[in-house]
Amino acid sequence: MRHYLGVAKEKGIAMEAVREVLAVALVVSGGRVRAQARDALKELLDSPPTGEPKGCCHD
User: Fold this and answer.
1) The dihedral of CA 27, 28, 29, 34: what is its sign?
2) pTM for the complete prediction?
3) In this structure, is residue 57 part of a structural domain?
4) For the chain, what is the largest distance between any 2 Cα atoms, rounded to a whole number of angstroms?
5) Does residue 53 fall inside a structural domain?
6) How many structural domains is the chain composed of?
């Protein structure tokens, strides 16, 4: 990361532009993690509990 920030500074890219790009990258990354967590939670909630025997008397 330091390398890229150094190159941006050498090229004269404004720090405001760098901050905007970093903010977008964090949002995108956070959205991906949120989607993965949502999918994992959905699978967990949709699957039957593992401790119950199959073929319950209430079937």
Assistant:
1) positive
2) 0.52
3) no
4) 73
5) no
6) 1
Which structural domain range is residue 33 located in? 2-46
Phi, psi (deg, nearest 5) at residue 6: -65, -40
3-state SS class at 55: coil
Any domain includes 6: yes
Tens of pLDDT, residue by residue over 33-59, are 888 888 888 888 887 766 655 555 655
Q: Is residue 56 part of a domain?
A: no
pLDDT of 28 > 70? The answer is: yes
Contact 4, 18 (CB under 8 A): no
Q: What is the spatial distance between Cα 26 and Cα 33, in angstroms, rounded to a whole number?
A: 11
Q: How far apart are CA 31 and CA 57, in angstroms?
A: 43
